[in-house]
Design brief:
Layout (H helix, E strand, L loop, with lengths): L1 E5 L3 H12 L3 E5 L3 H10 L9 H10 L3 E4 L2 H4 L5 E4 L14 H13 L4 E5 L7 H15 L6 E5 L9 H6 L4 E4 L3 H11 L9 E4 L1 H32 L3 H9 L20 H14 L5 H13 L2 H9 L8 E5 L14 H11 L3 E5 L4 H7 L6 E3 L12 E4 L11 H7 L4 E4 L6 H6 L3 E3 L5
Parallel strand pairs: 1-2, 1-4, 2-3, 4-5, 5-6, 7-8, 9-10, 9-12, 10-11, 12-13, 13-14
Helix pairs in contact: 1-3, 5-6, 9-11, 9-12, 11-12
This protein binds uridine-5'-diphosphate-xylopyranose.
Uridine-5'-diphosphate-xylopyranose binds next to helix 9.
Protein name: UDP-glucose 6-dehydrogenase
Keywords: NAD, Oxidoreductase
Pathway: Nucleotide-sugar biosynthesis; UDP-alpha-D-glucuronate biosynthesis; UDP-alpha-D-glucuronate from UDP-alpha-D-glucose: step 1/1
């Protein structure tokens, strides 16, 4: 099939490369000239995702994946066009649909034959009819009558395992009441739907809401555990024991029960806010969803509170080593990362920060304003030079088993703050360090 994917961001590039790899002819549209030429001329992926560079390079070299600067140039001849552009949060939590709407209009102007338009960017319920109306308005304006199918096909991939999630995900949700468009999508997804049936066909509104429901449910579990962690601390209980104790209950399950420094990333914070906003717009109050967001905002400063308590507020002039900047391991993504809140708060009270991350240091330099008290170390070990204390905020594998005796000898104040509960408190304490985790009373 000939497929166009609008947007070479996370979702777009993974979608384009995975469909190209199974033999489709895919054109990926990228408006940003620097990003476009890096991809087109050097097959350079603009973010870190395991395996994606090789996949993109192979498919470009073998001629199945091409890059184009515009829908007008890249769309003609395609049977399917994915919209995979950003839907960032507006200040009121609403999803900003301007990029989706812009793409729909350009698609209407550029399509030259029957087309299935697939909305893959996470967008609120009601976006599918909007996309249809915008494409149709352009068709009408130029007197064209090409057959148009519009399908919602939300994406459930996780950063760090995006290719695996795309090719071997739990489900493929298709939202449309157009049998012909669904048949085209079934054909396109056939290589990823071989061993057992993963395709779920539903109405567009349900498909759109499924995506928000999945992310809000997962975020709820995390905020719930973070709230419980506070209670555990107050009563002298250990959230890690509680996590195990409830996770074996099949009705609960063991995933997404990890208390920590709060959730970040491109999806949970934005989607939870957008769902709450949708509810408000409908005159409903999504009290639980609002609380999930509020608990998370507070949680992102939990480590800072613990540091402040330990030092009784006297943080000015202290130097903190920070391991981890990305919002989670195996990505350089720092959107809404708890590290940003922690570093900003430490700098505000006059502390010094030496930070390191296996892949996100460049991203951090771009996102954090230059500050004389903020430095990025060359490696994990060098982060500790001159540090009074260490805080770990991303659970990279490299941080799991440091030499605690060496840490105790290096850190002036002999104290560590474990924002992801990756260390065994007893073991750490036996090395002569003070240990603070999340919810470990
Ligand atoms: C998420 C969804 O999992 C994915 O299905 C959706 O398509 C996009 O959003 P992602 O943002 O890549 O994926 O990361 P995920 O692995 O889900 O983690 C999200 C955040 O929650 C991270 O900050 C992580 O550290 C945090 N988290 C996760 C916890 O704090 N505790 C947990 O138990 C699990």
């Amino acid at each position: 099939m000939r497929v166009t994917v609008v947007g070479a961001g996370y979702v777009g590039l993974v979608t384009a490369a995975c469909f190209a790899d199974v033999g489709n002819q895919v054109v990926c549209i990228e408006r940003d000239p620097a990003r476009l030429s890096a991809l087109r001329d050097r097959a350079e992926v603009p973010f870190y995702e395991p395996g994606l560079s090789d996949l993109v390079r192979r498919n470009i070299e073998q001629g199945r994946l091409t890059l184009s600067p515009s829908i007008a140039e890249g769309l003609p001849g395609s049977q399917v066009c994915f919209i995979a552009v950003g839907t960032p949060s507006l200040p009121n939590g609403q999803a900003d649909l301007s990029q989706v709407e812009g793409a729909a209009t350009e698609i209407g102007r550029a399509m030259t034959g029957p087309l299935v338009v697939v909305q893959k960017s996470t967008a609120p319920v009601g976006t599918i009819p909007k996309v249809r109306a915008l494409v149709e308005a352009e068709l009408t304006a130029r007197g064209a009558s090409h057959r148009l199918g519009v399908v919602s096909n939300p994406e459930f991939l996780k950063e760090g395992s995006a290719i695996e999630d795309f090719t071997r995900g739990d489900r493929i949700v298709l939202g449309s009441d157009d049998p012909q468009a669904i048949a085209t999508m079934r054909e396109l997804y056939r290589p990823f739907n071989r061993n057992h049936e993963k395709i779920m066909v539903m109405d567009a509104a349900s498909a759109e809401l499924t995506k928000y429901a999945a992310n809000a449910m997962l975020a709820t579990r995390i905020s719930f555990m973070n709230e419980l962690a506070r209670i555990a601390e107050a009563v002298g209980a250990d959230i890690e024991q509680i996590r195990k104790g409830i996770g074996v209950d099949h009705r609960i399950g063991s995933h997404f029960l990890y208390a920590g420094a709060g959730y970040g990333g491109s999806c949970f914070p934005k989607d939870v806010k957008a769902l709450a906003h949708t509810a408000r717009e409908l005159g409903l109050q999504a009290e639980l969803v609002e609380a999930v967001d509020a608990v998370n905002q507070r949680q992102k400063l939990r480590l800072f509170e613990k540091i402040g308590d330990h030092y009784q507020g006297a943080l000015a002039g202290k130097t903190f080593a920070i391991w981890g900047l990305a919002f989670k391991p195996n990505t350089d993504d720092m959107r809404d990362a708890p590290s940003l809140d922690l570093i900003t708060a430490l700098l505000q009270v006059g502390a010094k920060v030496r930070a390191w991350d296996p892949v996100a240091v460049d991203m951090a330099r771009r996102l954090l304003p230059e500050h004389p008290a903020l430095t990025f170390a060359a490696d994990m070990r060098a982060t500790l030079d001159g540090a009074d204390a260490l805080a770990v905020i991303t659970e990279w594998h490299a941080f799991r088993s440091p030499d605690f005796t060496a840490l105790a000898a290096t850190l002036h104040d002999c104290v560590v703050f474990d924002g992801r509960n990756i260390w065994d408190p007893e073991f750490v304490r036996a090395s002569g360090l003070r240990y603070y985790g999340i919810g470990r009373g």
